[in-house]
Amino acid sequence: MLIDIENIIGAFKQEAWKNGISVSNELWPKLLGWIQEHILSDFLTQITRQVDEIVDIDPDLSERKIFEMASRYMVGFLGAHSASVRIYDPQTGQMLSYGLFPYKEDERENVIPLDGSIAGEVIKSLKPVIVPDIFEDQRYQNKDIIYRKGVSSLMAIPLDIPRLYPRERDTAGVIQIYYLEKGRTFTNLEIQVANLMAKRLSFVIARKKILSMHKSNEKKELIIQHIFRILEKRGGIKMGEIFNRLMPDLSDIINLQSCALFSVSRNLEDIVLEAGYSESEGSYHNIGVRFPVKSEPVFEILLNLMDYTGDSIYEVVSQSYLLVVDPQRTELMTENLKHFATLYNINSILYIPLYMDGEITHFMTFDTLDQRQPYRDDEIDIFLFLGHELIKAQKMKSYLNEVVRTPLIQLRTILMDS
Known about the structure:
Blueprint: H1 5-14, H2 27-55, H3 63-78, E1 82-89, E2 94-101, E3 111-113, H4 118-125, E4 129-131, H5 143-149, E5 153-161, E6 171-179, H6 188-231, H7 239-250, E7 258-264, E8 270-277, E9 290-292, H8 297-302, E10 315-317, E11 322-324, H9 335-343, E12 346-356, E13 359-369, H10 377-417
Antiparallel strand pairs: 1-2, 1-6, 2-3, 4-5, 5-6, 7-8, 7-13, 8-9, 10-11, 11-12, 12-13
Helix pairs in contact: 2-3, 2-6, 3-6, 6-7, 6-10
């Protein structure tokens, strides 16, 4: 049998509640055998089905949608009222909302602190936290949301998603599962089942990352193929021309909504709009327009003419790129550029500098429009790769042009000497 009946019978006899119950010794093994055959079998079938539903969530869905679906399955199976998923953001030191079931905008906080919160305690300890009475727990600070939800107790389960490659960091999160009952007693079985489902959810996110990496490699290969087809054509070709030929073909490969290429003057005082995508009616790309670098702090920081001393959640500044998460709240843009972003429904802007022989000669911008979320890490990685390949293409084209011209120069020298 799958369970050790002798040990379980011994444990039964040690329980205080057994006192006063008169049963024969023959009943215990028969009772436990019946439980294993009927109760445990059905339970394992149910838990297996539920875990399979989580594992089978489509990894092509957004992470937020995956978390919401998993929350729905957990609520249904555990007989809960609702559930939410929060992910720790090390850049801001806060817990961000990444999913909620059932979804109601007024029943969630977008951001809660790591320190002093239930979710933060789970992140730090990597162990479940049980809260029988939320109203009496000082760690749950926003009691108004609890009143609106009508819930009184919760269990918070750690969600750990390990990194898949060295540059990536582990993803730490928490699933908070809410119940209506006040003073609710949570059994070890409920906690273990919730832990199991959280681990399977981690598997889904890890699989999504693996598939994203595979798709990313495919996209990079297609970018290289497109660039080589451009290089096969004879004659001199400028960066703007490569950009114009490449972007329409890449729009179906990577999520391009609107992007542009700027050249930088040698003295780093001016930038010029060289190319833009898309070129549809109503596009805001006015090719040839010149801007002073000092007109916008974001330009000066991008070109390393000004140090970035901020610590805001509305921008991300690194050696490879600059991402403005919210143009209306960042301090890196003037009111003029903020008005421009509002006029054209620009939700975030990614800036990628292009280096030629150690100097920034161009930079690209990628705009997300309307209500689309800022670019994800995997998308930024593709754009960084694109910029790297554009520079390589420009260098290769210049080199090929020199190779072609060299024999003609030598021939003319020979004829002149003769």
